[in-house]
Amino acid sequence: MSSINEFPTFQYSQPEDYHFSHDSVFLARRVYEIITNQVENPQNVLDLCAGCGVIGLDLLFHLRAGKQTLPKNFDFLEVQKEYENHFHENLNRLGNIDTRCRFINDNYAMLLGGSLDEKYDLIVCNPPYFSKNQGKLPVSDLKLRSRFFIDSNLESLIQFIGRSLAPAGKAYVLIRDQLEHKQDQLSIVRDVSAGILNMQQLEDIRGTHLIRLSLVLS
Q1: Model pTM?
Q2: For residue range 164-200, what is the model confidence (pLDDT) as tens digits?
C-alpha cells in the first residue's frame, strides 16, 4: 500500500509530544472499504488504543462521505488522559454527526467482566508496536505509552478483544513483527487466539500486518 494518503479527511489536533503514524489513516480507509464492500453496518464500534481518535473519526468521516449507515455508538478507549482534550477537539472538527461518541479513559487490561463484554460489532486498533525491552525508551511519557506496551501487553490486548466482540463482531488490528528483537507478533496473536478467535492475515499496510479477528462460535 502506498505511503501517501490518497484519502485525506481533516486536520487533527494532536499533542506536540506525539503525532500519530500514517498507519492509522490507512487502517481507517481500508476498514471502510472492507465493511462497505461486504455491506456491513456495525452499530456498536470501538477504537481501541484510540489516542486522539484518528482511526475512529476517520472511519466516521469516510462513512458519512460515502453516505453509508453510521454506527449508533462509537467508543474510544485510551489509557492516557492527555489525549482526551484532543479527541474532543477532533470530534468538533469532524462536524455534525449522529453517532454517539464517547472517550473512555481506562486500561483495557483492567476491564474484566464489565459493560464492554460482548458489546462491539466492530473493533479497530493500531496498538503500540514495541515491548519495553525493545530499543531505547522515549523520554516523553506520552510517546512512551503510545509506542510501547507499558500498562499491558499484546497478549492482554488480544484477550480483551476476545471478550469485547459481539458474537458476529470483527476486529481489525495492525500487528508489526519485531524479528530483530526475536519476537514474532503474529505467532503471539495465533497462540493467544487459539480456540477463542479466528485470525486472518489480510494484507500489509506500509509494512505492517493487517489482521482480522472474529470469535470462534460453537
Answers
A1: 0.88
A2: 999 999 999 998 876 555 668 888 899 999 999 999 9
Query: What's the one-letter identity of residue 37?
Result: N
Neighbour count for residue 135 (Cβ, 10 Å): 13
**3-class secondary-structure state, position 198:** strand
Q: Record the cell numbers describing residue 8, joined without a space.
A: 485525506
Exposure string (b/e) for 162-195, b if CB count within 10 Å is 16 or more? bbbbbeebbbbbbbbbeeeeebebeebbeebbee
Dist CA 152 CA 69 (whole Å): 34
- How distant, in Å, are the alpha carbons of 64, 76, 113, 155 from that of 152? 34, 17, 17, 8
Whether the Cβ atoms of residue 131 and residue 148 lie closer than 8 Å to each other = yes
Q: Give per-residue burial for 136-155: e unless 16+ CB within 10 Å, then b.
A: eeeeeebebbbbbbbebbbe
What is the per-residue pLDDT across 78-125, written as a single tens digit (0 to 9) for each?
988 999 999 999 999 999 999 999 999 998 888 877 889 999 999 999
Question: In this structure, which topology does domain 23-215 adopt according to CATH?
Answer: Rossmann fold (3.40.50)
Dist. CA 2–CA 48, nearest whole Å: 24
